Amino acid sequence: MDGLMKRVPIAVLLLALLALLGMAACGNEEPTAAHPVPSWAKVAPEQIAEAREHGVPVAFENDLGMRFVLIPAGTFLMGQPRMSSFAGKRYQHEATVSEPFYLQTTEVTNAQYRRFVADHICAELDDYDLEGADHPVCTVTWNEAVAFATWAGARLPTEVEWERAARGGLVGKEYPWGDAWDPSRVNGLGPDDGHEQSAPVEQFPPNAYGLYDMTGNVEEWVLDRWKPHEDGSGSVFSERMSLDGKTLSPEETARLDRIDAEEAQLPHRTVKGGSWFGPNLDCARRFGLAEIRRSIAIGFRLALPVPKKSR
Questions:
Q1: N or C: which end of the chain has fewer CB within 10 A?
Q2: What would the 3-class secondary structure string for the chain be?
């Protein structure tokens, strides 16, 4: 052994030692052996770092076949400094998610929801294609979404959580992928994306946090009660808005007045994102809707807390 040491220059030994240290340092950027990244998960370095910090998986699949990825805590720029024909100025401000959380990678599908309500139908209309097992469930009220989440041992995300996740670490961008419109990345209004109505989940590329359809396909209920932004911007959706520009009969006007009066007394919840049914598809899009209302363009996804014992 002494002879071997004499034949190996000290510089070579030092280089070998530095190489080993470098490999160890690189290893700190990878998940631990106890929590490897699943092959299906598409996650960013900051998600892996957050998972390592808390000693939890960066992604996992539950017994219902729902996949979740870890969303890091942090402060981000919420909203958009522009005008929209639907929702007005998207009040731009800093917002904070104080704790990491898990978010479902896709919207809840028909197959998943029908394990809870076996006979659920999205639309009893011949010219709508919404019932596929791997399409997002729609035509559910906020209360029904919450009931499903509770049954599944989860909850709805808050509005701030939802938008932080939708942005995928991008700062101030209009869409989950950047500022330039790209119909190949989203199921929006019209057939340009290959779908007249909703599409199967995971048909379009995910954002940087591995989340699919964070805008497009269907809009999504979130946990929050509806309230306008601090600058007063934001809209409450009503049936009257869908008829904007049409000439209404006195009877139709009276019916809409009655509906508006009734719904004004009801609790409203926040809906985020865009859908196949409308042209507004930016990350900041938000509107209020009576929690008992259903829509063929509204679904939801689930959130889970990081186990406290891991923090």
A1: N
A2: CHHHHHHCCHHHHHHHHHHHHHHHHHHCCCCCCCCCCCCCCCCCHHHHHHHHHHCCCCEEECCCCCEEEEECCEEEEEEECCCCCCCCCEEEEEEEECCCEEEECCCCEHHHHCCCCCCCCCCCCCCCCCCCCCCECCCCCHHHHHHHHHHCCCECCCHHHHHHHHHCCCCCCCECCECCCCHHHCCCCCHHHCCCCCCCCCCCCCCCCCCCCCCCCCEEEEEEECCCCCCCCCCECCHHHHCCCCCCCHHHHHHHHHHHHHHCCCCEEEEECCCCCCCCCCCCCEEEEECCCCCCCEECCCEEECCHHHC
